Amino acid sequence: MCYVANGVDDKDVRMDAHTTLGEPRLLISHEALRHNAGVLRAAVGDSVRICAVLKADAYGHGAAAVAKTLARGRLADALAVATLDEAAALPEVGLPVIVFRPVENVYVGRQRSQLEEAIERGWTLTLCSAAAVGDVARLAQARDKRASVQVKIDTGMSRSGVDDCDAHGVIEGVLRQPALRLGGLYTHFACADDEDDVATGEQFRRFCEVTDGYVEANRSGRRPIRHAANTAASLLHPHMHMDMVRTGLGMYGIDPMGPATGRTLKPVMKWVAPLLMVRTVRKGTSVGYGLTWTAPRDTRLGLVPVGYADGYLRSFSNRAKVIINGVAANVVGRVSMDLITVELGSVPSAQPGDEVTLLEDEAASPASVYALAELGGTIPYEIFCRIGARVHRVAVDEVAAEVEERAAG
Ligand SMILES: *Cc1c(COP(=O)(O)O)cnc(C)c1O
Q1: Is residue 214 among the annotated active site residues?
Q2: CATH code for the domain of 348
Q3: What pLDDT sits at residue 17?
Q4: Is residue 374 part of a domain?
Q5: Looking at the structure, do residues 78 and 174 belong to the same domain, yes or no?
Q6: How, if at all, do strands 269-274 and 355-359 pair?
Q7: What is the CA radius of gyration of the chain?
Q8: Total structural domains in the chain?
Q9: 104-138: per-residue pLDDT in tens?
Q10: Catalytic residue (one of 3, 11, 55, 270)
Q11: Domain range holding 387?
């Protein structure tokens, strides 16, 4: 075999060993998910609703499976997504669905038919302009429906939402429309993960100032709920929980304030891949595009079938560590589109088929999402969102059953 001639170790190949079963996988622990939902529930108490944020395919974890687990255990009171497409992709689990992206330009492209579906299916739409209020009311009226809407108010982040000084006009507009039901009022914090930042308190003050009146005035009937807190504010600012919190990152077991806070969140995701091949190269051999790494001595190298197309960032080249048999190994050479090369000097026992952990589900690991985010000059959110569709999402419980089955027969 030409591989052997090129220096690949002629050892037994155990490609079906371990949980990778020969392919890169995202192992999703639904037990960890349930645990985190419990931690968040304990933080907010029983009287505050929890909206689980499932946008971007549940931060890369697989929205359908996450939605089912949360609904089955009654671990969330609502689900939120960013777009109408994401709402349509969710399984029907009997929880209210909130769409964060503000409705605008209703008559452009697919928007109208998508909004009609949203109204039919009772998803809650986000409005932040008088134009959108009128447009959604017209669509709902034409279908003899009442659309559920929430008004998003910008209290200082200067991103989406109606300006706090113009909020009354939009809210009054909603209340005047019989085809609209005002389900809630909300805002979003710019700096909630910085405990000392005064901006969060100022945003909260402004939000209360604008919305207090609506809560009072509608006390007799169905008053709109108010919500502002993301995961960070849910954990740091109990007085900002209001009627509901919107938790994304915390559900997935990651602390927005970093790994060292001592909270008991458990990372839900572990990213593994098989060691595809192992070869020994001579001292002085260079590796990968641009030949950016050169072996300082005769070295065993392992090939792992993931690359930047899968969301393993090119900026990890020559910097990141993977875990093999419990030991850290360096990524050497450039990360390419579909492959990386790791140096096996620290793991002489490594063989083809061994499981390589690219992203560890332990906060303290050198391959934790915190560590990878640091290396990539980004945040855990982005590391999660970039993990590509080629990587199969699998519930770990299912994998365990699958491995057992193979072992048995
Ligand atoms: C993404 C998002 C959240 C969730 O934020 P986390 O920091 O992941 O908890 C909450 N609210 C809005 C409006 C969002 O877009």
Answers
A1: no
A2: 2.40.37.10
A3: 44
A4: yes
A5: yes
A6: antiparallel
A7: 25
A8: 2
A9: 999 999 999 999 999 999 999 999 999 999 999 99
A10: 55
A11: 4-26+268-403
User: What secondary structure, in 3-state letters, does 329-353 show?
Assistant: EEEECCCCCCCEEEECCCCCCCCCC
Question: Does a structural domain hold residue 114?
Answer: yes
Rounded to whole angstroms, how far apart are CA atoms 355 and 360? 12
Confidence of residue 3 (pLDDT cuts 50, 70, 90): very low
Question: Quick one: 340 and 300 in the same domain?
Answer: yes
98 C-alpha to ligand 1 centroid (Å): 12
**What CATH number did the domain enclosing 178 receive?**
3.20.20.10
Give residues (CB < 6 A) around ligand 1.
Answer: 53, 55, 100, 188, 230-232, 246-250, 256
Q: pLDDT value at position 15?
A: 41
Contact 154, 198 (CB under 8 A): no
* 281 & 328 share domain: yes
Give me 147's structure tokens.
């659309």
pLDDT digits (tens, 9 = 90+) for 151-187: 999 999 999 999 999 999 999 999 999 999 999 999 9
> Mean pLDDT in the chain?
93
- Structure-derived torsion over alpha carbons of residues 252, 257, 258, 264, reported in degrees to the nearest 10: -60
DSSP designation for 282: -
Rounded to the nearest angstrom, the distance between the alpha carbon of 173 and the centre of ligand 1 is 26
| Atom number in ligand 1 closest to CA 248 | 8
Q: Out of 11-25, 188-202, 317-331, 332-346, which region has the weakest mean confidence (pLDDT)? A: 11-25
Looking at residue 387, what is its pLDDT? 98
